Amino acid sequence: MKLSTLLTSAALALGVAGGAYADAHEKTKVGFVFVGPVGDGGWTYEHNQGRLAVEKEFGDAVETVFVESVAEGPDSERVMTQMALDGADLIFTTSFGYMDPTINIAAKFPDVKFEHATGYKRADNVSTYSARFYEGRAIQGHIAGKMTKSNIIGYIGSFPIPEVIRGINSAYIHAKKVNPDVEFKIVWAYTWFDPAKEADAAKVLIEQGADVILQHTDSTAPQAAAQEAGNVITFGQASDMAQYAPSPRVSSIIDNWAPYYIARTKAVMDGTWESKDTWDGIGAGMVSIGEISDAVPADVKEEALALKASIADGSYHPFTGPLKKQDGSDFLAEGETADDGTLAGMNFYVEGIKGDIPK
Amino acid sequence: MVRLEKRPQPSRAFSWATPILAVIATMIFGGLLFAALGKDPVASIQTIFWEPLFGDFAFYYRPQLLIKGAPLVLIAIGLSLGFKAGIWNIGAEGQYIMGAIFGAAAGLAFYPTQSVFIFPLMVVAGAFGGWIWAMIPAVLKVRFGTNEILVSLMLVYVAEQFLASMSLGLLKNPEGFGFPGSRNLQQYASAHNGELIAGSGMHWGVAAALIAVIFAYVLLTRHRLGFAIRVTGQAPKAARFSGVNPTRLVLFCMGVSGLLAGLAGLFEVAGPAGQITIDFNVGYGFTAIIVAFLGRLHPIGILLAGGLLALTYIGGDIAQSQLGLPAAAIQVFQGMLLFFLLAFDLFTQFRLRFGQAEVI
Known about the structure:
The structure holds two protein chains of two kinds.
Chain A: H1 2-22, E1 28-33, H2 43-58, E2 62-67, H3 74-85, E3 90-93, H4 99-108, E4 113-117, E5 126-131, H5 133-147, E6 152-157, H6 162-178, E7 183-188, H7 195-207, E8 212-215, H8 221-229, E9 233-238, E10 249-255, H9 258-270, E11 277-280, E12 287-290, H10 298-312, E13 323-324, E14 330-332, H11 340-344
Parallel strand pairs in A: 1-2, 1-3, 3-4, 4-5, 5-11, 6-7, 6-8, 8-9, 9-10
Antiparallel strand pairs in A: 10-12, 13-14
Chain B: E1 2-6, H1 12-36, H2 41-49, H3 51-54, H4 58-84, H5 92-108, H6 118-144, H7 148-168, H8 204-222, H9 224-234, H10 236-241, H11 246-270, H12 284-294, H13 299-323, H14 327-349, E2 350-354
Antiparallel strand pairs in B: 1-2
């Protein structure tokens, strides 16, 4: 009896303490929950670069804390709670799998702001944000279509989720546009980061004749495999992967979270923060295109940069009709562009891609 | 000259002292490691061991210890029975996954019907999932003499692929906008393994872990089967002469460990985790092996070891956030614990002798 009374009062104190501690300090405290190690060279590395940019921007006015390699599920709930208890004003949770945990913990700490990357659930104190990586994929597809000699482009997919499928479609559409004979071979690695599996996938694709490898996984193993094979080009993913430039890595898609993290931290400091959904691309600087190396002919580079500019200023949308779905049904009519809802839930290939999306 | 001499009898005193010495040595060398990283060693150790238990927010962390420790203890208890008898189930991680999948699937099959029978059915299904996955290496071993270590370990990777497939396909939330992951069982009252007392961290998994400890204790000390397990581990030939059936023992030990791992998975997915996702498993099945050995394969010891390891996980995360310790340093710290345990364990069987060996 006594125990249960004690625990109930402790549970009540949880809410009270959270509120009290949130105001008991002057510095704005920003917490980051990372799914991988900050040294992964890819996804988490770039989020951590964003964190460092926040520190640099605001100096002594902010304090940032982070916990790396946090498993999705109850562990992430604990880490978020701990940050909130320790007085964080704003917490960035940087993996899709933190979605329900973020919503759960946000409900317990109404005074703390939460920002969840790549999810779709929001609350009064939970915003969501993600980047339009498919815009970068369009540029990759263009370069890939121009550069391939075997007309076989290999693609290492992570998981068959809308985010990845969108990237495959975008790259395919733009490769096909400049090279009607192009063919995509897709291997699903079922991992975001596993150098051994990614290397195997790259080797399989190279053996099947691919001389361009695109990847939606975060390690540099495909670059290493391409270098070994020779005459195969790749693109950096999440990070620049410049150590493999000028070849095999000829360009890259870089996640650039710094402008967003700075803006949101500023909003909390100014008291203007409100819950919203942000989906920014090349135009807003959330997606950067890494230096296109000299391995790419000057005219192709010029076209790629022109494509980038037209996407950035909004004059061109990578999903512009006429486009059909893989099964031949209509997707977009002439001149029509895909709406965000369709893009967010994309679960079909466009016409021309062979194979089925694994179920 | 220093040399090792085998003790005529394993030292009981050392057997008990080893875990304590290991913890002390880990604190000392861990402290040195943290100091080398430029962090205050005393503050680091204090954050890891003291903060979760007695810090400002202990009211939150203490229940978390139960949540983190329960699956470790539940799995480790099952493993310890086999380990005592020399039956090595290394694949508890896979059995944990299968338990979660079977259990969650049983519950989701009835969504959105509300009924008091759903949760008990899920418990049975979860236990069955873990049990059947452990039966594969067990049956292969007794029928064809395959090595259960390899088979059970390999089946972990099969289970992981199965988990990915379920998250993306059969069990995917139909209202999840195409994203992977099942419905959240926390939002399905009949299937939710919620806290038994609000804010206490006590869920059915914690209760099951405590029951398993008592069950294992009674089994090992009072039951004929427990005797058979101990004899088989210590003297397999003697065990045969005393009428122990090795086939049945393998099936029993593998079965129970799989069943408990499956239950741990079910309680986790229905409670703290809530969802079947691609990354649902976080290594409890492997960490439980450390817990089993840290606890000397003794039920009470396992209970304490599970608590200790849960403490280092929770304290480790706090130290990361508050002191900026890298996650890798925390992992090294946890690794040290097992290393020192095994190192000090040597002295249970051997003692140090100084000076020249006597000529016999």
